[in-house]
Amino acid sequence: MMKIDIQKLFLVIFLIALLFNGFVAELIMWLCLVAMMMITRYDLKKQIGSKGYKIAIFFCVFYIILYIVQILIGKHDIIHTIRLYGLTKNICAPALMLLSFGTICKDRFPIKFVMLMLTIFNLLYISAILNPCYDDVISYQMGSLNGGSGISVVLLPASIYYLKHSYKNNPLPQMNISVLFIFTTLLFIALSDSTTSQLLLLFEILVYITLRIRMNKKTLMRVSLVILIGTAIISLLIASGGLALNPDRLKTRVGIWTRAYNYFREQETFYVMFGAGDDIVQMITKSLEAHNVFIEILLIYGVAGLCFFIYFFYKVSKRILAFQTENMRYIVACIVSYATICSLHPFYTGLTTFQSVSSISIMFLIFNDENRLNKLIIRGT
To answer: What is the average pLDDT across 4-14?
Structure first.
């Protein structure tokens, strides 16, 4: 019990530290991550298998090596080095969250805490939208309106699953926070002008309804992987001109992707292979990120970084979707929403809070004690 309480404490401190900037907050965050890695490493190996544990470690080490290569060979001043560090941290964030908080996500506490945290932020965003003085400058650590609504959309399937099982086990006391989060999220999305979040909400409803129909396990896995990997291919085709679209489509994202790809293509051979250490491109008069995880990683760590990222994403997704669980529709809705948002917004390499809450949502659905996936993973290793 004491061990679990310590893990909960580290999780709370970590999530609170994410809401602040600066060296002290960064140090607290890393102390929590490292402490949890040490405390839970043996339990996590049992939970995801020794092979899965090594893959997560190797994923982080791979990008650390690329980071060191960039620092030693690339032309970066101290400001660019700090930014490159932040981008690298966010690329590795899902693996870091798994290595640190994967075991505690079997418990209901992490999902309850992030629902509470996001409910508060939902209310803050809603208040800002309803305020006549609102001038689109609000930006909490959750990001802009797109950031705030996007993170809530990813958490929504996990919260609905939590609500469903709370009602079965202990109706009223457990339901309050999930009901409040779901209500404020729906209101926030309805009031916001985030087309992405609104469309993803409709998509999640469609996924939930569709997956209620009994589907062959292999068919479900193939359809899901086609959606995830197809998103990467389509993004790169649009950026490279393989799919000719008006630059103003997708709210100018097509233009941003095209400029980012052209910037990448004009780099020297070293930067094409290992990246230029940055994802900022010029769009009209603004300095903007590439607004697409695949193109961002291509700019930051080149062909080598992108190929490894896609391979890792494919292997992990295939591993998850290989098991038929009764909450599979929630897992699919959560992962596809997460991947879609990362393909349209710069939250993957620019917002650790989005990464952390999304990872907790996905890990809760995979590892929680009320499904058999964890036992199946152990048997399969």
So the answer is: 91
